[in-house]
Amino acid sequence: MPTYVAFLRAINLGPTRKFPKADIIAATEAAGCVDVLTHINTGNVRLSTTLRSRAKVEEALERAYEAHIGFAVPTIVFTQAELRAIAADARELTDARPDLERHYVYLLKDEPAADLVAAVEARSDEVNSVVVRGRAAHVLLGPGYEAGGVDPYRNEKALSVVATNRNFNVVTTLADKWCS
């Protein structure tokens, strides 16, 4: 049975989008998943399922989450191998930039169009940059970061795909913990 890692977007950010861990586990199990684990209360879920397609897993989880909690929860799913690769890319990019102050990883539901990737990456400068690899956009912020060309929110919108972000530590921790 395949194991996946799901990232839930826009939960536990305000008074109207609460989705406690116990409810996430119950709803994930209601979607037919087993061996469900969560990590911190920001919507990181490991699960196993008989479903073999990422799109089918996302669809089943999104239906179950909305039925359980009463609002839509966009969900981005990766295989263990995919998350390991994203974490390896994150480590490589961080190691190459010892001056980094922040490293955010935008986890993308779909791979963005090449022209959109090129436009977003072109906003990079010597201090701040965006590197898109597959379904992950790495936002690398150097010393003195100010919202400018590589503003994380602006770049997420410019890629025109559903995304959620996690910091470097969460991505690498989950890859080590759940994908080894």
Q: What features would you describe in this structure?
A:
With 180 residues, the protein is an alpha+beta fold. It folds into 2 domains: 3-73, SP0830-like domains (Alpha-Beta Plaits, 2-Layer Sandwich), CATH 3.30.70; 81-178, Alpha-Beta Plaits (2-Layer Sandwich). The chain has 6 helices and 8 strands. The chain has helices spanning 21-30, 54-69, 80-95, 114-121, 152-158, 168-178; strands at residues 3-8, 34-39, 44-48, 75-79, 102-108, 128-133, 136-141, 163-167. Strands 2-3-1-4 form a 4-stranded antiparallel sheet. Helix 1 crosses helix 2 (54-69) and helix 3 packs across helix 6. The mean pLDDT is 93.
Summary of the model, kept short:
The chain is an alpha+beta fold and 180 residues long. The chain is built from six helices and eight strands; from the N terminus they run E-H-E-E-H-E-H-E-H-E-E-H-E-H.
Radius of gyration: 16 Å
**Mean pLDDT over the residues:** 93
Query: Kindly, what is the distance between the CA atoms of the first and last residues, rounded to a whole number of angstroms?
Result: 16 Å
Number of strands: 8
Class computed from helices, strands and strand pairing = alpha+beta
* Helix run count: 6
Largest sheet: 4 strands, antiparallel
**Can you give the helix content as a percent range?**
25-40%
- For the largest sheet, list the strands in their spatial order: 2-3-1-4
* Poorly predicted sequence stretches spanning 5 or more consecutive residues: none
Shape: globular
% residues in beta strands: 25-35%
CATH topology of the largest domain: Alpha-Beta Plaits
Supply the CATH class of the largest domain: Alpha Beta
Task: Please provide the ordered H/E string of secondary-structure elements.
Answer: EHEEHEHEHEEHEH
- Tell me which CATH architecture of the largest domain applies here: 2-Layer Sandwich
Number of domains: 2
